């Protein structure tokens, strides 16, 4: 009869203990267990006489981000390279982290390793934090005995990918924030300011100019249906995000539309190609076979158009087609990428060539974002000036008209 392998309970608690060993020397440490009795019995078997046990209470902590994982990877790589034992490295990083969620995660992984799991197996139990690409690279490092070097390469990869994402977010954030602010200011003017002018103008008894009547009509609509306007906007955004999560067709449509946007589209395309080539270069340099590498590359690109194209490339490569030809058939890469890939395949230095391509497109993203930031400032100022200035002029036209009539 087959026996069931006992897996570590991830709901165990962390206990900080203190005691004396067989030489009467004071020793301290931490252990994950279901209760104090388990800690005492485990330590007793190790010849430790426990004097105190205290449950470590970890706060809820914030969500674990990609930056947290990148920092952990860099720290772990540095410590392993310095000769620090794996479990000790996990202890140091966990205790020194400011986010309790990361501390809990690392202690769970450490417990898995202590109970006989490999590092890769421990990581694979947390797919939300460690994706297939991450685990495949760690596995390659464990098998080849170069875990510290692979973790350092993985940390560099994550840092570069995060830098590109940050550039894209900064390019999108400024105009989005300004437009949202402009809408809120306009809504406040329409709901609270324009009605005051309307009451004032009604006492004049004179005909109002066309622009003023138009602004007042829009103001009446805002006052009467403000809850529909705001509810429709926020509800529409929420429903769109829910539909986007569930519908691959909608994701494909939006990602393809994003790539075709003027100015922004080219930045997104360059960033996607940079992530794609950087991921493939990192995987291939780690010794992961090309077909297996492509399995992780599509998802890492961050764009479903390139994800689906990568699946086609993978299918062709698995049947014997060379990478350059498969990429040409996908029709989503510029000639420069395919030329560099072809040179890399012919010279046996594919990872090096792909890294150079990634460097080039990352620099293109940097330059485009800087240029866009310089361009957006005057454009946004003109738009805001026209909007707010138009409202002000429209509301002061009757006053100017009355002043001219009195002076006449």
From TrEMBL:
The keyword Membrane appears for this protein: yes
User: Which cellular component, as a GO term, is one annotated location?
Assistant: plasma membrane
Annotated signal peptide: none
Q: Where in the cell is it found?
A: Cell inner membrane
How does the record say this protein sits in the membrane?
Answer: Multi-pass membrane protein
Q: Which family does it belong to?
A: Belongs to the GSP F family.
Record-given protein name: Type II secretion system F family protein
Species of origin: Chitinibacter mangrovi
Question: Could you read off the lineage of the organism from its UniProt record?
Answer: Bacteria, Pseudomonadati, Pseudomonadota, Betaproteobacteria, Neisseriales
């Amino acid at each position: 009869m087959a026996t069931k392998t006992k897996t570590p309970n991830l709901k165990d608690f962390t206990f900080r203990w203190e005691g004396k060993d067989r030489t009467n020397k004071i020793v301290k440490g931490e252990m994950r267990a279901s209760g104090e009795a388990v800690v005492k019995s485990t330590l007793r078997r190790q010849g430790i006489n426990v004097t105190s046990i205290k449950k470590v209470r970890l706060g809820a902590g914030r969500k674990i981000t990609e930056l947290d994982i990148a920092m952990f990877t860099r720290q772990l790589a540095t410590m392993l390279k310095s000769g620090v034992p794996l479990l000790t490295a996990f202890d140091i990083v966990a205790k020194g982290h400011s986010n309790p969620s990361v501390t809990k995660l690392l202690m769970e992984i450490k417990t898995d390793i202590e109970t006989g799991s490999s590092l890769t197996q421990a990581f694979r139990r947390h797919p939300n934090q460690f994706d297939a690409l991450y685990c495949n690279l760690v596995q390659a490092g464990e098998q080849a005995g170069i875990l510290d070097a692979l973790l350092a390469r993985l940390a560099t990869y994550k840092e570069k990918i995060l830098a590109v994402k940050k550039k894209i977010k900064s390019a999108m954030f400024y105009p989005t924030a300004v437009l949202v602010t402009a809408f809120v200011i306009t809504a406040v003017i329409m709901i609270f300011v324009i009605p005051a002018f309307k009451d004032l103008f009604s006492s004049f008894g004179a005909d109002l100019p066309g622009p003023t009547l138009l602004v007042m009509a829009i103001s009446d609509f805002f006052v009467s249906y403000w809850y529909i306007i705001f509810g429709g906007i926020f509800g529409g955004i929420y429903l769109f995000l829910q539909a986007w999560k569930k519908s691959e067709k909608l994701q494909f449509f939006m990602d393809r539309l994003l790539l075709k946007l003027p100015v922004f589209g080219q930045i997104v395309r360059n960033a996607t190609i940079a992530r794609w080539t950087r991921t493939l270069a990192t995987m291939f340099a780690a010794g992961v076979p090309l077909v297996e590498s492509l399995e992780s590359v599509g998802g890492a690109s961050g764009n479903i158009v390139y994800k689906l194209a990568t699946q086609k490339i993978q299918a062709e490569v698995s049947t014997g087609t060379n990478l350059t030809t498969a990429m040409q058939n996908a029709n989503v890469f510029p000639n420069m990428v395919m030329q560099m890939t072809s040179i890399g395949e012919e010279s046996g230095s594919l990872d090096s060539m792909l890294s150079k391509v990634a460097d080039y497109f990352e620099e293109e993203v940097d330059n485009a974002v800087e240029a866009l930031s310089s361009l957006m400032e005057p454009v946004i100022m003109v738009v805001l000036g026209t909007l707010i200035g138009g409202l002000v002029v429209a509301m002061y036209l009757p006053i100017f008209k009355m002043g001219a009539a009195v002076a006449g």
